[in-house]
Amino acid sequence: MTTWLNRQAFRPDITVMVFFAAIALFFYGSIFWTFYMSMTRSTLVPSYEIVGFVQYVKLFTNQRWLVSCVNMVIFGVLYIAGTLAFGMLLAVLADRRIRAESLFRTIFLYPLTVSLIVTGLSWRWLLDPSNGLQALMHSFGWQGFTFDWLVRPDRALYTLVIASIWHSAGLVMVIVLAGLRGIDNDLWKAIRMEGIPLWRAYLQVIFPGMRPIIASCVVLLMSEVIRGYDLVIAMTKGGPGISTEMPAKFAVDFYFARVNLGLASAASIMMLLLSLLLLAPYFYSEFRRRT
């Protein structure tokens, strides 16, 4: 009898059901609650009277939200393209069996071990015109050197791109390098027999055959773009002005600083829909490839 009870207590199907019930309650339940709040006039205290899509209308007439969306698009395009290019270049260099390869991989993987807050603070200090790179060049007598992008509204966003590429290129390098190490040697023999230049072999033969791996890198990088908050807070705090404002920072500010629960919930739901919209082509291509 005791043995039967023990078996019943540890049945895998019951364990899985409890796990999925917890996901449904805390994850999907939170999404539903956020959507419900976005349909109300909730401010500091939740209001349960549904008023329709009023908060969404306010959201898309809010200049700060529109600027944050434009910033996210510009940042996302430059960040994903730059990280892929730099990470794939590092992977190619490592794939050529260079000397001290382990040290090379460690150096470029190190930024991943550092939190985005620490990364942002480090780059903020480095790019600060008063104490960073510009001040260092001036101390060496190069008075004409200027690099004040961090305090310029038209350039500050690009400093976020630089710091983000530095932080994430190692991740792309590792993923792509794992794919390169799985290439069949017969393919490389055929490339050498045909006399194809190395750069052309990578661009026209090797990388096109690694599309699923590269697509996975793009998905990971897109998630970082949409969730971008830590680096912005640490480096620019959304400034100068709102020149580096991002949707995630907008939502957090309206949740906690401006205490506008309804508008912040609407911003959160729009970020979720944007995530699904960006991931839809990837899942569709994966479905077609498998079928």
UniProtKB/TrEMBL annotation:
**What InterPro entries does the entry give?**
ABC_transporter_permease, MetI-like, MetI-like_sf
Instruction: Give yes or no: UniProt keyword Hydrolase.
Output: no
Q: TM spans, by residue?
A: 14-36, 65-94, 106-126, 156-180, 201-222, 263-284
Q: How does it sit in the membrane?
A: Multi-pass membrane protein
**Any Pfam family hit:** BPD_transp_1
Domain (ABC transmembrane type-1) ranges: 69-282
Keywords from the named record: Cell membrane, Membrane, Transmembrane, Transmembrane helix, Transport
Cell location? Cell membrane
Q: What is its main location?
A: membrane
Task: Tell me its family.
Answer: Belongs to the binding-protein-dependent transport system permease family.
Put simply, this protein is called Glucose/mannose transport system permease protein
Organism of origin:
Rhizobium paranaense
